[in-house]
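Hi everyone,

Forwarding the result from last night's run.
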Amino acid sequence: MNTIEDRLLAISRLAEVINRRDESLDNILNSVKAHNQWFVQEHVLQMMDAIAENFLAEHLLINWIHDYLPLPTQIDETLGIVMAGNIPLVGFQDFLCGLICGYQMKIKLSEKDSILLPYLCQQAEIDSQYVEFVERLPKCDRVIATGSNNSSRYFDYYFRDVKSVIRKNRTSIGVLSGNESKQQLQLLGRDLLSYFGLGCRNISTLFLPEQMDETVLFDAVSQYIEYRNHNKYFNNFEYTSALYLLNLEEYKSDGLFNVRQSDQLFSRISCVHYQRYSDLQQVHTYLQQHDEDIQCVATEIEGFDHPRRVGIGNCQSPSLSDYPDGVDIMEFLLDV
């Protein structure tokens, strides 16, 4: 029987598995790295720790669920989830919402991240009563699909007759005052380069005041110097640097990371764009114009208002209520 108590017990087991460090996890981490070289052990464990701390802590779950009470005993619908694979377990929050609400889930994993979630479910004894991993998504009552701008057009057509949430490419922005402390700049480095900068919550564009020296950004990312030894990251860095040279584009580099002045929102791997501002209204105007492309905005500027604002260093640490694209997935799932 798929009851609320059963589901909460399953989540409790899941928390235990994620907090556990044993030989089976070591074996999985090796398999994950062999399958996708971007998913290094440090990043997988970082994501698991973030899930345990921000999603599965009992007091946080209780407070989060309270806003949606009463939960249904069971929902006799199927939920299809198409997950992205840019960073480890990036679709976990959608899975957790579906589990809490009592859906029978059909999950199409990204080929890039096809090992971790099935492992966690198997270890936590979350079986086909709750979730089935499929190669091709069958007809479902409602769908959550995450992909690129190109794939979203396919999703819009394919799921046109069902209730759906379709996500496209997004990225994140940072707004600096020029008075950030050394510690805040180190935290900014986390927003720029954790998970190699591959996440939609990683910052790809920074707004800097007119007189701020952009080379301080190299100090911010210096903690990731070991990325020079990662073939995929460093190959991207060298390719991007060569491309800028061939196109005679101005940029600055420290041998690990590129900084380039540009009004383009999305930047390449190993690079951040920056723009200058003299008035914060310029920043607000830009954010309004590009709202559909922005996941979150990181800043410590007092009084800076944005619905998806986070503190510097917190881009990759969303809470349970920090839904991708600002769409409340629990409301979507409970609207039956």
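The radius of gyration is 21 Å.

Cheers,
N.
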